[in-house]
Specification:
By secondary structure, this protein is mainly beta. The protein has a single domain (about 30-300), classed as Regulator of chromosome condensation 1/beta-lactamase-inhibitor protein II (Methylamine Dehydrogenase, Chain H), CATH 2.130.10. It is about 0% helix and about 40% strand. About 55% of the residues are buried.
Length: about 300
Amino acid sequence: MLAAATWKYVSAAITAAVVVVVTVVALSASQARATLPGAREVVGAAGGSATRYEQISAGYRHSCALTHSGMAVCWGSNADGQSTVPAGTYTRISAGGYHSCALTKAGKAVCWGSDLHGQSRAPAGTYTQISAGYRHSCALTRAGKVVCWGEARFGQTRVPAGRYVQVSAGTFHSCALTKAGKVVCWGSNDSGQRRVPAGRYTQVSAGTFHSCALTRSGKGVCWGWNGWGQRRVPAGTYARISASGAHSCALTTGGKGICWGNSGWGQTKVPAGRYTQISAGDKHSCAVTKAGKPVCWGDDEDGQSTVPAGT
């Protein structure tokens, strides 16, 4: 998640928010191949796949990914240090607005990049999940408590009491999922992004002015602002869903990536393939193929869709 901009999209030039790190040995340009314009997959020199990746997160103007062995890699904008990953081995990673966060194997939360609002000052604790938003961050403790820090101007860090199994930090609001499958959102509600439709869910994603979730039957449901059709989920049965600023993405149970909403930068034009992870960023999107290769498409102004060689 995803995160986003500080105002609504009123023209194709306005943006939203959400963000991994790079200390990978670069291969020559001939060792990388593009699958589609704006979508890049990388292979090793001998034609075999490079390091296998398991997680990916598309942020505002950067992207991050995590290998099977726990190496974190980020690329794209690094104006605030959001793509400079601290040394360590991680189990989770999330790209936000101008910062990124990850969890160490011991469950410690580590954030880097902009800290203007305290979004990179993770409280001490042992966590199982983490989510970097626009100017705030949230994490889930082993006991099921959600903790958020950073900007609180809209109440996005004031977590309602309860026990949760998943959390997602958006731009000016946050959402979490209870063990019973209830979605709870808090923070800004100017576009109805907190008005969760009745139902039982298995996953939730907070975007900018809208939110999305998956029902227990695999149906995608979105609510909030719909200026670009980002709430109109195509019919299908999904395994994952991701909400961003003016578009949303989901992964079918068969591994097909589908995105909808604003496509002014090609962020909804998913390259053909089968994927295990998908993430909607600001004006770009990313996914991980079944072979463990990161692929990104859409806006590439800051290199956020150019997966580093050797990744």
